[in-house]
Amino acid sequence: MNAVVSATVLALNGAPRVMVAAAAAIVALMLVTWVVSLLLRNASIVDIVWGLGFVITAWVVRLTVDGNDARQWLLTAMATIWGLRLSIYLFVRNHGNGEDFRYQAMRRKYGERFGVISLVTVFLLQGVIMWTVSLPLQLGQVRSTPGVGVLAIIGVVVWLVGLAFESIGDAQLAAFKRDPSNRGKVMDQGLWRYTRHPNYFGDACVWWGIALVAAESRLGAWGLIGAVVMTVFLRNVSGVTLLEKSLHKRREGYAEYVERTSPFVPRPPKR
Asked: Which pTM does this prediction carry?
């Protein structure tokens, strides 16, 4: 009994330390990214840094606390593979395309105040979201018991499904856009036939997989909050909802595509 109490106290004592370390790393990353964005006059680089931020967070926590070695390496590997793939993909996709229209609109609206306003509403806000979403990477690495088991295996499977959806969806969309004859058309092939946003669905699955791996440590179950927040943002805030506002205006036939295709969870299209 005393051993159990001691282990619980030790785990709880480690949690604030990793949460503060993760917050410090994220704030530092966002401040540096903000300064670079001012020099380049391009706030879009925050999108590229998004995936990289989770990689840095996972490694900072890994080096800050001694938990279950297998689970720590598993969570760190899952975050690293996902985050690096996403950041590299976005860098290649965005390179040479200038600033995203969202930030251009903000720049026109706020003028000389854009720099300070973007620090709060873009960079630090994304930092707060990043810290919240990364809770499974933080709390899942604290406890040394129990070991990696069935729940972690299920989590890895969900993560693999998500990574496949996101990677394949991104590759299919990139190939579609490279064909000049598709300019202005709606992408409704491959995975995009079954969901209007296979990349966002995959993203959500990745974080539910990571959260399940973390949840096996019991303390890491609080990390499920991160998966919920990521899913809500992707489905209802900055992902599907925000993107589709512009797609309805920019893509002929998009309304018909919406009518027949699931917005998020894949399913056969309506006839």
From this structure: 0.89
